[in-house]
Amino acid sequence: MLISLSRDLNRLIMDYLIIEGYKSAAEEFAKEAKFPGVSGKPLDVDFDSIESRMNIREALQRGDIDDAIRRVNELNPEILDTNPSLYFHLQQQRVIELIRQGRIIEALQFAQEELAPRGEENPELLSELEKTMALLAFERCDAKPNGIGELLSAGQRLKTAGEMNGAILESLSQGKEAKLESLLKVMVWGQKMLREEVNLEDVPSINAV
Amino acid sequence: MANRPSRSSSIPIPRSNSSTSPSRNIESIISIPFATPARSRLPSDQGPFVRGTTHAESDHRGAGTSTSTNQSNSPLRSTARSFTQPPLIHTRTIPRMINVPFEPRVVRAESSRNLDSTFQPPTSPTRLRKPSIGVRPPSTQRTTQETPQTFTTPSTTFERPDYLEHSAFRHLLQTEAPSSLPPARKSEHPPPNIHAYSSSTSTGSDDDSNASPPPREIPSSTSASASTPVISSDQVLKLPTRWSVQFRHHILNLSEDGRELTYQGTGGSDRDREAAAAARTVQHIPPACGIYYYEVEIRSKGQKAHISVGFAGSDVRMSRLPGWEPNSWGYHGDDGCSFAAEKNGTKYGPTFGVGDIIGCGMDFTTNQAFYTKNGVNLGPVFENVGKGIDLYPSVGLQHVGESVKVNFGHEPFKYDIEYYVQQQRNQAWAEIIERPVDTSFFSAGNNGSAPEEQTKRTLNRLVLSYLAHHGYVKTARVFQKQAETLNTVNTATPSVASSTPTLAVTGTTDHDVEMADTAVSSSSSSTTGLVIQNLEAAEIELRTRIVNSVLEKDIDSAVNETERCYPTALEAEEGLMKVKLRCRKFIELLLIAAEMKKSLNTSISMGGEDHTPSYDGEEEDGMSMQVDDDSAVSMNGFGPGSLVGDRHGSRSSSSAQARCKAALSEAIAYGQSLENEYRSDKRPEVQAIFKKTFSVVAYEDPLAVGGSIAEVVGHEARGLLANELNQAILKSQGKPTHPPLEMMYRYTAVYLLQLGLSGVGAAAFADIQKELLDSES
Which residues form the CTLH domain (chain A) (predicted)? Predict the structure, then answer.
């Protein structure tokens, strides 16, 4: 049982390293943790796909949207075609980057040309469009309203990068997100439900302090 | 025995949980949602797991007795009566029930005498108790209404329906109680009733059954069962399998297999014929099912089907159709309306009648019901079904000749419920994992960054601490470096918080699992907080080397290195760890000797090939313990060879014999010195370790024995010991003995179990074992 649990957890770690693109760490881990079939067919993982995913991700985290779009189309042009919401978020990110660089006129123009038509098509995206445009209004203001300033944060880039990563993984018929992340979500959900639905106050927990 | 502690800690429920007074936690979890007013303070308010007498009491009340009446009575009396003559009690003791028009039917000429005599016992509570347990004389009722039938248990036996395989708690859900249950518990199951019936039918005389309530069981056995512990992971949640004999309107004739209900009766007044009559199941539906489903076939012979199919709580009167009363829900065949505690229904689906198969589903993730008609889903209906109460499948009939046959999974369902459950399951799972982690989980100090960012950081820390804990040093280094480059890329962005969230286990745990800054030292210079300092890396390497030497059968190195670097680890608990290690060394010596002997035998029978298997050199997989056993088995599998060519066999075998002997005497000598050394140590755990260790001597080939010996000698035992040593070293350094990731997994498993048992149906569809660990996916 113990052996099998730690083997299972090893797999969870490996899954995380692969999904999140820690290629060399994954390779090292396969050796150290003695994953079966390291030399031959390494698990059922395409280590090379990690690399291209990571390049795209890095581009997004750099704020280089053009590069990211070019790379993802190289990898598989269908990914953007079949994910209108992802494509919108990439364009949104481009507007955000332009605003960040102070290229307001360009940002405005781009938003009008690319974002607005899509926002009209999809009410869900419209509210995000509005939020993005609000950035222009508060551009010189330090105290931005809630939810607006976030767009300029590293978190927003991570979010876009995560969505992109998930879409690529899905196109490769792999899980969308790391199982470890799911586990964290289930745990937090479980804690919340125990408190809210079962009215349990004292939930023994692992908490972020 | 040496490995027991770590073994038990491997159960997916953290040991720490047990030290956080699980009973308190669990009880509070369980009792809150089920502490309905009607049940307030029963002897053992065990929520859904009401047993024995408690069960009977609540059920009795559910059968229509008013609560106040019941409480004023002695519980013993009401219990016994409810089992003895449910419908009669109502008519006799509860004035409210008198206006229910079934009374004349019950008190029939042939049975009235017996009914009376059955009622004598209430003057003597102790006597009355007896029939409630073993033999109950309600045969009077049956004989008045049905032709005598012999109940046989197997008729209700069926496998757990396939659609329930989608529940994470499937292993807890059972259609039949396991036969290993103690007798006291059995009293709550159908079999005793059945037994009572068959025995009474065999006598054929009502006088008999009432004159001889055999006093062979005493009440204490039942009350003992009422105090059974609350929940554990091996709790059995029983599924409905049949309509209840007790909790049905007496006018409904129940078939012997408990599936078919017929509204019977001939003649009588018109008013009598119009009386509603309901039945419910013996067991309530465990919300841990996630979704529960059953089907009813309308077999009415009557002109119109005024039939209600649905659910009811335990306290709903049996003289009303499901849906009319509070805590009951029903879909009515005559008008196709849905009823939820209302007189006038709401338009819901088509009408139904003879020949139709009506499916009735309960989705505990949404607390909504749904119905199917002849395999077509009619959509969700009702809100908050069964919230806070035990929910039973229930049907109601209203006209003579009406008849329904239920399918709780006895046979394939008309509707493709399995596919439906699969869809709902996927949706419930998606709803849990597709939302970002609730920001309240993270510390307040980090509210500057998005949940995605904090999630990533938390996960990175989890991964790194795990790698460090288990000594995957190289991976940890590479990972750390990669994580930093990834995050330093976005230097242009302003808001990378420098303070990192720290994972820590709160609550009283037996070991403070604080990931904090132990394995992962935080550094303000790092954006990720992922830094393993050189000193730390060396420490991890050292610890890993020691632990691995146990796996590699080099116990001496393990002991010496530990003694040199972590002396306190071996000194803890008066040297218990050292005892375990040295006993392992003894076993390793024995194994070497055994292996030599075996290969000697093989080489003799093989005809000379000196086939000494490289015991020390055999492939070490670390993770796959099968290797050892397999090689041993395949070695054995060689039958006496047919090769006779014996060229140099005798010479090599004689030298092998000598080596074999030497190995054995070395082992024995070590064992003796070990025994001498620890003879004075009378601690029971030490004695137990020794007993187990020395029992290995008795076997020529310990690896081939299996069972408990294999547990002591096998490679898995090595893994456990290595892990124990790892924990001992970590503990001696004041570090957590389990990586936070492992704790996280175990806590999550416990949360889900508790949620599932508390009625949060979605927990049944969060199957972390299947979703996250199984490699098949």
Answer: 49-106
